[in-house]
């Protein structure tokens, strides 16, 4: 499989008033053309920093990133992002049609923009909502508009940052299936960041598991599930349950260290409490002897 995205030895350190903060450390992986890869990791491990470096918004302090063989140095033109907060990513004063057309204004004429937007809205099931405004749509429909806008741009790589975290469970399932449909029909290359272990296994061709901060790759797991998936039968399958458990165990690799830290702190607190009780007993004994 041809590598669409190549991340090699990626590292980034932020300089802050209280000192340097290492966000990611030695990240190396590839995403093949037409592949859907999910990235999971503990909160605060550096997933957002990873996305910003791929978008070209943050220049890494180490390593490099290439998109279809070209080193990323600035914001790539053939990349699109779908954010978690759909309500803030759409222009409320523009219709659905014009929201989807918006990123195409500089590259396409009016007729081409309309055709491209109509095709993308048809793909996400919103062909009849072209004249409506975002505030007239449900949350799930607004996120469909965001996805349509990204698809209309026809990017080489689609990045999705917790794209379904802000919708209800039923809508989330519908959007997950929509993404799989788009991936099959458009052969779109997608990198999804998610906190949801089940979602990562259900969506992905592969799951990248990251460590605690600074982020490094703990495991790169191939998802051995059928290309066409179902929210019920796929999630009940032995392969799904087994892989979900493996991802969960890998995410908990750092937990014993944290538990030891808590236990050590508790032991120190217990020693101090015992010392205080001993001092009180000694003081009481002295007062009793004096009296």
From TrEMBL:
PROSITE patterns: ABC_TRANSPORTER_1, ABC_TRANSPORTER_2. Residues 5-237 form the ABC transporter domain. InterPro entries: AAA+_ATPase (IPR003593), ABC_transporter-like_ATP-bd (IPR003439), ABC_transporter-like_CS (IPR017871), ABC_transporter_ATP-bind (IPR050166), P-loop_NTPase (IPR027417). Signal peptide: none annotated. It comes from the Bacteria. Pfam families: ABC_tran. Keywords: ATP-binding, Nucleotide-binding, Transport. GO terms for molecular function: ATP binding; ATP hydrolysis activity. PANTHER family: ALIPHATIC SULFONATES IMPORT ATP-BINDING PROTEIN SSUB, TAURINE IMPORT ATP-BINDING PROTEIN-RELATED. This is ABC transporter ATP-binding protein. It comes from Umezawaea endophytica. The lineage of its organism: Bacteria, Bacillati, Actinomycetota, Actinomycetes, Pseudonocardiales.
